[in-house]
Design goal:
401 residues, 5-stranded parallel beta sheet, single chain, globular, alpha/beta, two-stranded antiparallel sheet
Length: 401
């Protein structure tokens, strides 16, 4: 949100007059309101639930955490709204839902008690059918609870059935904290199209965190911002989340230039960023960082020849490393065309078997299924997707069964 100088002055006065400002100021070690920037003013308004709509002309900022898209998570067993996801490590005790078996036993007992009331029996039988279907869904999807506390106890929503098998591992890893309470930085490595960005975004949504990302950084100012000729500082997503909290994905980090990674190293190692304005900002206790790349930063490979060899100091900033491969079950679910998905999977295996260096990633599966729905045949679709860059002899090998 863009805030003018006049609006910022009004926000400062509004915050200073609020009853919770003194406690907030002491907790965060802040000076008086004259030192508050526009972004921090808006953050404080959201935290203290101060309605600033009469100043900024927007809706009240009483929405501290982003919400997952409708249908992404099963909300049926979610914790009450009074126990928000940010209380991962401090807050209410985990919510213990009754077991599925207990629910089924209760319904069966109710059926027996209502034996003389056909309408009641029919209604309860429908409930039992719903529970049974729920059991089958749970067993087939093998769901894992999203939000966990430091002891590993879960409270929150369940991951969707169509999720990457490494999602729970990623969430548990990114929320691991050292003895000082600092979250550990995680590196996920996998081929293009394997869902690394989607996984990082889902982790943020699952934990109720603000989300942002950077990709292909070449210069330090792209990460920490810059001051223009008029003396105005331009903040970056990384700086905002580093200061205010949230999950930041550093995408394609194995393609970053040395100057950019040097700025990153300093921030992640020291827990502070020195801005071009001279201001020093500290790492928020709830700042989470994920680095993602096609490699482990050890240099180019046969498939990813444009990747850089990163300095050991940069790699050490990400002590937790997760391999993020293709998830064919999710790929099949997104394509909604089993025959085409099976053909792509077979072509991928054949290419690997014959040593053909070509990329047949999930985007081929999803795009091909879309083409078939629009009227192309399977052979036409193959010719325009995973076979398009291959010589005839290579195409024959890839298509061999």
């Amino acid at each position: 949100m863009s805030v003018s100088n006049a609006q910022r002055a009004q926000l400062r006065r509004l915050i200073g007059s609020h009853s919770g400002w003194a406690a907030y100021r002491r907790l965060h070690g802040l000076g008086d309101t004259s030192s508050l920037g526009s972004a921090l003013c808006l953050q404080i308004c959201a935290t203290l639930q101060i309605d600033h709509s009469h100043i900024t002309g927007t809706e009240s900022m009483n929405n501290p955490a982003p919400q997952a898209p409708q249908g992404l998570f099963n909300r049926a067993a979610a914790a009450p709204a009074a126990a928000p996801a940010p209380a991962v490590f401090h807050g209410p005790a985990p919510v213990t839902a009754p077991s599925v078996q207990a629910a089924m036993d209760a319904l069966l007992a109710a059926l027996s008690a209502q034996a003389g009331d056909s309408a009641a029996v029919a209604a309860l039988a429908a409930d039992l059918e719903t529970v049974t279907a729920r059991v089958q869904t749970l067993e087939s999807a093998a769901p894992a609870l999203l939000v966990i506390d430091a002891a590993g106890a879960a409270f929150g929503d369940e991951l969707p059935a169509t999720r990457h098998p490494m999602m729970e591992t990623l969430i548990r890893s990114v929320t691991a904290r050292d003895l000082r309470g600092t979250p550990q930085n995680v590196w996920i490595s996998g081929p293009t199209g394997s869902g690394k960005t989607t996984g990082a975004r889902m982790a943020a949504e699952a934990l109720g965190l603000a989300w942002g990302f950077h990709s292909q950084m070449q210069m330090p100012h792209e990460l920490i911002g810059f001051v223009d000729a008029a003396g105005t500082y331009h903040e970056t997503v990384f700086v905002r989340l580093f200061r205010d909290g949230g999950l930041c994905l550093l995408d394609e980090i194995d393609g970053w230039a040395v100057d950019a990674t040097a700025a990153l190293n300093s921030a992640l190692a020291n827990g502070q960023i020195s801005l071009p304005t001279g201001e020093i900002i500290n790492r928020n206790r709830d700042f989470y960082c994920i680095g993602a790349g096609n490699t482990w930063g050890l240099g180019p490979t046969a498939e990813f020849v444009g990747r850089n060899r990163l300095d050991a100091a940069t790699r050490s900033r990400f002590p937790i490393k997760l391999a993020w491969g293709y998830d064919m079950a999710l790929e099949r679910a997104l394509a909604q065309n089993d025959a085409w998905a099976d053909r792509v999977f077979a072509a991928r295996r054949a290419a690997e078997k014959h040593g053909i260096k070509t990329l047949i990633d999930p985007r081929v599966t999803i795009a091909g299924a879309a083409m078939i729905r629009s009227g192309f045949t399977s052979d036409e679709t193959a010719a325009m997707t995973y076979l398009a860059e291959l010589a005839p002899a290579q195409a024959a090998l890839v298509e061999s069964r």
